[in-house]
Amino acid sequence: MTEDLLKKINELAQKKREQGLTEEEQKLQKELYKEYLAQFRSNFKQQLNNVDVKLPDGKVVPLTQLPKKKK
């Protein structure tokens, strides 16, 4: 994630608490949040793709190859 993105999000959040935001700033804030969440989700999925799980039988498999449990 870029530091500029986080910096701008924090600036808008502080301004919102102190004096409020204009309609244009509110739209910008929503767009920045969307971008931040998209980057966060992408990074998180990438981390999960690099996780290996050791099964009870001693076998090590990637997390993505585990069978999904039914609810």
Characterize the structure shown.
With 71 residues, the protein is mainly alpha-helical. Helices cover 61% and strands 8% of the residues. The chain has 2 helices and 2 strands; from the N terminus they run H-H-E-E. The chain has helices at residues 3-18, 23-49; strands at residues 52-54, 60-62. A two-stranded antiparallel ribbon has the order 1-2. Strand 1 (52-54) and strand 2 (60-62) form a beta hairpin. Helix 1 (3-18) crosses helix 2 (23-49). It is elongated. The protein starts with a helix and ends in a 9-residue tail after the last strand. The mean pLDDT is 92.
What does this entry show, briefly?
The protein contains 2 helices and 2 strands; from the N terminus they run ααββ. With 71 residues, the chain is mainly alpha-helical.
